[in-house]
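Following up on my earlier thread - several people asked me to post the actual chain instead of describing it. Fair enough. Here it is, all 305 residues.
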Amino acid sequence: MKKKKRGALYYLKRDMFLYLLLLPVILYYFVFKYLPMGGIVMAFQDFNIFKGIFHSEFVGLDVFRKILKSQQFWNSVRNTLILNLSTLAVSFPLTIILALVLNEIRAVRFKKISQSLLYLPHFISWVVVAGIAQNLFNMTNGTVNGIIKSLGLDAVPFLSENGWWIFTYILCNVWKEIGWGTIIYLAALTGVDESLYEAAYLDGATKFQRIIYVTVPMIKSVAVTMLILDVSKMMSIGLDAPLLLGNTKVMAISEVISTYVYRLGIEKACYDQATAIGLFQSVVNIVILFMVDRIAKMIGEEGIL
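Reply from S.P.:
Thanks for posting it. Predicted structure:
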């Protein structure tokens, strides 16, 4: 006997309480993610805050032409790419290595304590992290420079010289996020079949060889997916870290897109230009996402699209 097809209303009524639990999430994304998209029109207007988006003059692509001619904009793009690529080059392999090390720990209590300590920095505000960095790396009275001076060496300008500032920025980012980044890899490692390790052990493989030839291939697809997602955000960078760690001495490298937009939109009230830059970021990130996903498929990986 053919089974009767049930309509959407039946499932809506049956799972009503589950959908009610989902409602706050839907409202959040609708109010804070979708409704603000209407403001994108400012990128194509000579926006006047008193006239609003409905009465400001439409100027087409003039705003984009203006920002693309700005040397300061291109400097912020360069700095954003430098900081993002440098951080990714350090944090991506270290996150995988740390996950592999944690996976090999057999003392359950020690493993849990280690994970908790590694996850903790993720929940610390960048304001606090910047304060810690100032206390550690300040050139005159910082703890690290105090130790360096006690050894008879010259103080290192961690926060006032471009190259050292990049080093400090990467160090703070890695310390804050590396533990949190291991969660997905540890979850993937729980799905590795134990019989593969047993077979490798019987074949005479050492612990290191089991990691290289069994563990790593098992999480390769996860690593590729995470790499695609990370690379697709190359044009985006958080405001907190560059703004709080930066200063006038390193403005040439610390002025990134997010801080540039902050100064345009908040300090100078150039909302049309700030919106245009935000739209430019999103479009470039989407293009990068499709390109990287395509490259991943060309080398035999599944990709994410």
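The radius of gyration is 25 Å. That should answer part of your original question.
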